[in-house]
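Input/output pair, single chain:
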Amino acid sequence: MPSGSTSSRPPLELEAALATAHAHCARLARRHYENFPVASLALPRRLRPAVASVYAFARSADDIADEGEIALAERLAGLARLERGVGEAPEAHLGGDPVLLAVTDTRRRFQLPAEPFVDLISAFRQDLSQRRYQDFGELMGYCRRSANPVGRILLRLYGADTATNLGYSDAICSALQLINFLQDLRSDLLQRDRIYLPQDELARFRVSESDIAEGRTTPGLSRLIVFQCRRAHRLLQAGSPLGRTLDGRAGLELRMIVLGGARVVRGKEAHATSDPFRRPTLSAGDRLSMLWGAVVSGMRMPPLPGRGP
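Output:
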């Protein structure tokens, strides 16, 4: 056998550690699964570990920024460790953080740039210093770094990161981020003193922070929720052509994500008057409808109830 024939294979110790690290990321992705699939069976098998490692990296950074009783300096140090680590070789993380071991392996295997990972870290670092957003443009600047990089990484994994596809992906990822903001509106304020709705729009609809903190259902809050739902729905629609552009299982997963987001928005708007703080979840029937829409019915998004303000 030629001496160089196995040079591209990792040493046995690293190979075993990588298998363990990727399994850890897959468990993390399944444990945190909510309304939107992460590295699901709809994806090609060869991409599932890579997608799970990207998700686990983002989840780890989010936990450092938000979870537990940790001093600010310690949170910043943890984010700096991830930022440094994602630029290193997998071998640097043998015996260390399994998420960094897995994600650096993904970066090397698929030749992923460091920039979107660094953007994610910068958004989580921003969470530690900025708790209000003056207008929608400022909020979208945050989404550009907190959500859009994940979609851009996935398109690179799929080999479909054209300029047009990146634009579609940014619209979908920003929409999903806005939907999460709506679902966590009260808990973000009570637990983290953050409001991810534009301050000028709160004023426009005459919604006070105390309305949110005390869980008051006011006409203004209901109208504000409807307004935000329709904005998120428009962004999903703007990005939805990507679901028909991507081939095979990647396209199927993307279509299910878009349809799931649309159903959550529909549920949120439907209860805007009766329970604006309600967090919609997807039932088994919803998921079957999503699968039908993704496979058979041409990805028709469910209409929103009523008319917007």
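The CA atoms of residues 132 and 195 lie 6 Å apart. The chain has 15 helices and no strands.
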